[in-house]
Amino acid sequence: MKNVLHIGFDDTDSLKGSCTTHLATLIIQEIFDQITFLDFPNLIRLNPNIPYKTRGNGAVALRIKGEEKDLEYCKEIVINKVKNLSEVDDENTNPGIAFVENEVPKEIVAHSKRAMWDVISIKEAEEFSSFSNVEVIKFKLGRGIIGALGAIGNPLKDDFTYEHLSYREPKNFGTKRLVDSESIYFADKETPLTFNNIDYEYNSIMILPRGADPVFTGIRGETVEAVRKAYSLISPLEELPMQMVFRTNQHTNQHFTKQFSINELKPYISAIVDADVTNKPHYIEGSHLIFSVEDSTGKIDCAAYEPTKRFRGQLSKLLIGDKITVFGGIRPAEEKHQMTINIERLKINELVKKNKFENPFCSNCQSRLKSAGKNKGYKCPKCSTKYRELQPNEIEIPRELTIGEYLPPMIAQRHLTKPKVRGNRDNSSTQKQIKEINTILAALVEN
Ligand code: ATP
After folding, report:
1. How many CB atoms lie under 10 A from the CB of residue 342?
2. Does residue 1 carry a pLDDT above 70?
């Protein structure tokens, strides 16, 4: 298809304000009448374990089609908006834009796959500007080009979900989000195809962020219809001037695709590791749970931190010899600890038997025997019969864990974590027609 433009941008926000999806929505509002969207805006979460992220390491891609002059106009709007609205005064905000015309090169698709688990340098990403149909624009360090190209290179052909986002009036940024919370419980019950609205285990509403960013609600679901319906059932107590729906790789586990042996692990990657438990899990200061695992290549510590709540209690029941698969981010060694896998998810593959030893019974009077002293066998406390050769009975105690997958509670899960409720669901075959996408986007732009 000719006259297609893929637009990616990232690293526009800081913890003090803004949000890359908000900027995307402002851009969409401005360009919508000029061009046709080939997809919903894409919100692509990349490796959540890299140190540069603000929150969830999200980048945005817009995929549009139009006359050449209209595409040029769109480029200008994107450059101006990123330049003028990014939080560039923040030291850690280093915006980047990427434009790719027509076909996305397979090398950028490969970059995107790698950006899900690895750490990529700005220089590596900048090399894509040598392709004739690729343009990258950096502000300050321009680290955002890594995410911008990462977003463009992920066409969301595999499993995906949707997120509906609503945005606040600027005068309300930084204030408490006021909403009729009953309406959120109601919306949750009425829309079975939305998920992660409420963590019932910890009675916590999940759709309202807490930071100074412009987002009021973020509703996640399997279909556009479901997330829009849930939003329509919620009663906010403030004016919400903008909304948008993003198609996203959130809640698909897409960052866990690569298996590593322990000696291959390096800081900040997202890794899958098959290993055996080698010491009994124990709590350290701060109520974090630590244990070590090994495979044929080495040994490493694993950690489940305090915010993962009951997840720690479950993992504390692991025993030496249990065979597990750990899914986690690699924390570098520091003064007080060695390199560690921060556990995001864990699969138990095999459990060792847990045994206890009990004194046997007297064959004469059926009473429980007592020890007759070290290496002296047993003696019956009732009929005084002595048993010199008898061995203790070995009893198997049921394990408190079962084979299968363990996840932290919803309040402690990552954006990319596939929640249990999604089960085996895979939306890869449910893409919408371009006409329908543009009709829905038109309604969202009008708010
Ligand atoms: P938000 O989720 O609120 O939009 P964020 O958590 O996405 O914010 P950013 O401000 O976008 O945080 O910062 C993430 C930075 O990390 C960006 O500059 C992005 O280009 C870069 N980045 C993303 N993935 C990788 C990767 N795999 N390797 C190296 N850098 C990366």
Report:
1. 17
2. no
Atom of ligand 1 nearest to the CA of 117: 27
Is there a single domain that holds both residue 368 and residue 289? no
**Encoded tokens for 108:** 């950028």
DSSP 262-282: GGG--TT-EEEEEEEE-S--E
DSSP H or E segment with residue 161: strand 161-167
Q: What is the pLDDT of residues 239-295, one digit of tens each?
A: 999 999 999 999 999 999 999 999 999 999 999 999 999 999 999 999 999 999 999
CATH of the domain at 39: 3.30.70.2200
Last-in-domain residue among 155, 174, 203: 155
pTM exceeds 0.90: yes
Q: How far is CA 176 from the centre of its chain?
A: 25
Distances from the Cα of 227 to the Cα of 58, 219, 221, 240, 423, angstroms: 19, 6, 6, 16, 19
For residue 38, give Cα distances in angstroms to 41, 102, 250, 408: 9, 12, 20, 36
Helices (H), 272-360: 310-315
> Taking CB atoms and a 6 Å cutoff, what residues make up the pocket around ligand 1?
10-11, 13, 19-20, 46-47, 50, 52-58, 94, 115, 118-120, 143-144, 146-147, 150
